User: Fold these one by one.
Assistant:
Number 1:
Amino acid sequence: MSHVRFVVALTGVAVLLLGACGEDGSNSASPSSSDTTTSSQGAVPTAEELAAALVTEDDYDGQWTVNVPPDSQMATPGVVPESQQEMLPRIEFCAKASDESHSAAEALRWQAFRQLDQSEENPIDMAGGDRVGHLIFVQEFLLSGDPAEIESTFNALRDGMRACQGKIPAGEEGPGKSEPVAISDVGDDRYGELTTLEEADGRAYWLLYNSLVRQGPVLMELQVVDIVMGEGVQPEFTTEDVDRFLTTAVEHLP
């Protein structure tokens, strides 16, 4: 049973694992207070309008750069062409997720995407290979469609995330765990979780904050990733810091 939910192909840092299949499949998290909120109405944004709403390097405190792969074919910055869909992370839920959740994940075709990298010295490139410090990046994914269909997709993805929460047994990486986290009351529906995953050699661990938000005809996935390397190195962000990343991104949505 695979514990991998996301595999990032766009970052040159490393293969990124997000999410987990928990040993107990726990879904004890309390539902969002607006899980039954009726979809907002309005025109469905185009891919270009979604791309224009993506966060930029100027939206967050600190020094950030846009990660643009050398073979990128994006004619419009942020718009994902069909030829690059396979380069984006794919959701792969664990076996305990429902068929509906698996189907929703397989059908996802993000229309807009951006990765922001924090511009600090890369611990992997440090002389001597000590690997002490952080690798930090933010990824935003957007798609739009009929509000009722977007709501159905959100519900299926959220339910899949809940089903796959819990402890992550050690495999190629790990051990780790995936657990719900509280996020601000944004959009029509929202759900947040944190996956913590150790690297196999025990010299680093990954903090993977994953937020899913539905706002009318728009679905957004926001990943805030902090790879913490070296003994005694502390996480760069609190959950409150990560929540500010999220609220800023939602404020930009069309």
Number 2:
Amino acid sequence: MRPLSLCLALLAGPVAACGPDTDCVIGDRTYRLYLPEGHNGEEIGAFFFAHGYRGSAAGAMRNGSLRSLADELGMAFVALKSAGEDWNLAHRPREPQQEEAREYDYAAAVIEDVATRVPLARDRLVVTGFSAGGMMTWTLACGMSESFAGFIPMSGTFWAPVPESCPTPPANIVHIHGTEDPVVPIKGRPIGETSQGDVTTVIYRYTAEGGFNDPSQTEAPGGLSCTETANPDGKILDLCLFTGGHSFSTERLRHGIDRVLGAS
């Protein structure tokens, strides 16, 4: 059930001004919002960005390349903010026995709050995130696939044990990861009493559950080497690897956004 504080926030009346330099407040949570240059009030899509461990929405907004990407795509840039240092996900290090993510209500409330500030094209909403934000992205893909056109997790996946299946239908997903990542290795690594999930296992399970097949190999911007698949419903599942470590690139993100919006 959605927390009462978030529900009241959505019914509270006039919307308080906020933007890239000022928090948008929903209940006891916040996010930040950037609109592309030249936006004149028309309906637009948006990409929702989840920060890494100990990151912030303000920090994401200071990334000029992300704002430039929003300008290039003509999309709103929504920077999400965890309630604490990290996202409240299943099997996280501080709560390894926690079996359910507790971020779905927040994500849903952000969508509705953004929609009070700018006309949203609901079929052009994308979630992405880096590192711990990639874990948040996979979690939303698994539990909220019908709320977004697609998902681009970057250098992050579920905490172990990874889900056997997802409660919502298969989504458009482009997973991006460095082959030599020491922070979030493809096979994962132990942290405290839990462990990062194995990306290969996640892709294998999602492939089987979603009926993705007919793999093809392609090269993409940012040094990406991608295995692209699709299912009978036209959804895509791509695994795009680059030679390197724990690094973020808007060029790679642009490829992911183009792919998922092209498939939606």
Number 3:
Amino acid sequence: MVVSERVLKWAMRLYPPLLLQRIWVVSFYEGYKGVEVKIKKSFLNNNYNNSIFGGTLFAAADPFYPLLFYQLFTKKGYRLKVWSKSATVKYLKPASTDLHFKVMLGDAEIAEAEDILKKVGKYTGHHPIDIYDKDGEICVSLMNEVYVRNLDFIDQNL
């Protein structure tokens, strides 16, 4: 279902798996070309080392590329199935403060994905996410593999 950036922002803010881990969507960019997210350090997501639990960090990053692709292409009239196919996570530094990150889709990335969806019917892409602490240092670096399937694709070679 296509919704406005504002509606999805509030839906994600109130979505229990994110809300209870103190993951806060600041905003979706116009046209679903990006999103800004904050992770508030709290007793709800603290681990025994007094840093943010790694599962919270992964949960914060996991849904956003698939959401952006889904909303962007559904708005263009595509019927899709989209999900995170895999991810690699590198914990570089303990997350002992509030964190933030941005996810961006460039016009070239979008055009490439759309071209592949039209020609092949499915797109798989690797997209990076770096999560920063309040001092601007990277605490976590992820590579999210996103799978997008065009449900209306008909192979012309059949």
